[in-house]
Amino acid sequence: MSTFQVMSSSNRIDFVRFSLEQNVLRFGEFKVKSGRISPYFFNAGLFNTGRSVGRLARFYAQALVDSGIQFDMLFGPAYKGIPLSTATAIALADHPGLNGRDVPFAFNRKEAKDHGEGGTLVGAPLKGRVVIIDDVITAGTSVRESVDIIRAAGAEPAAVLIALDRMERAGPDDNLTPESAVQKVQDTYGMPVVSIASLTDIMTLLQNDETLAQHRDAVSAYRARYGCA
């Protein structure tokens, strides 16, 4: 099983197009963290203006509401999760599906503060069912650290919400893992991973947009080699 997706196909494709417009999603040849040469690259850090982050947050909010997952608050792991959780909480406050509900959020520091309130946590107290918000899941390190923080506070990690599921297996070419990083998180922690979009949606856009036709074969071949269902 890959990520939990219930957002309409048009919304997911809209997000892929939006990512292209913002140069967050690019096609070409990119050496990624694993050392592989990928025909596409997704860098959520390039959502870096007020308007683009505002729209991104509305996509996050819609994906979470559409998932039907019950939650009480959001948690953003440092560093990318900090603006993502903040912006998504704002978007949720205006979402008609929540009927005016004001969703609290919190995030962590990488280093403990030794003055003022001290500690590593900022924001609302961690309690109830907590959704972890990040951009992607690569190795699952951020999720593991977040789960530990949430459980240590006596709260329950309810789900992970990400922008893109690459649907990609890990490991060297001669010993690929049977599951993706996202699937491993779901299996390890027994909670869903919700994504705004996935590699399937990127492939759908490539198949239906003639202006991107030159990238179809490379992405398809990459998916055939490293992808998972």
Please name the defining characteristics of this protein.
229 residues, alpha/beta, Rossmann fold, 6-stranded mixed β-sheet, two-stranded antiparallel sheet, 7 helices
Question: Can you lay out the helices and strands and say which pair or pack?
Answer:
Elements: H1 9-21, E1 25-31, E2 37-42, H2 50-67, E3 73-76, H3 81-93, E4 105-113, E5 119-123, E6 129-133, H4 141-152, E7 156-165, H5 181-189, E8 193-198, H6 199-208, H7 216-226
Parallel strand pairs: 3-4, 3-6, 6-7, 7-8
Antiparallel strand pairs: 1-2, 4-5
Explain what the structure shows.
The protein is α/β, with parallel strands linked by helices and 229 residues long. The protein has a single domain (9-226), classed as Rossmann fold (3-Layer(aba) Sandwich), CATH 3.40.50. It has 7 helices and 8 strands. The chain has helices spanning 9-21, 50-67, 81-93, 141-152, 181-189, 199-208, 216-226; strands spanning 25-31, 37-42, 73-76, 105-113, 119-123, 129-133, 156-165, 193-198. A 6-stranded mixed sheet has the order 5-4-3-6-7-8, with helices on both faces. Helix 5 (181-189) links the parallel strand 7 (156-165) and strand 8 (193-198). Helix 1 packs across helix 6, helix 2 (50-67) crosses helix 3 and helix 6 runs antiparallel to helix 7 (216-226). It starts with 8 loop residues before the first helix and ends with a helix.
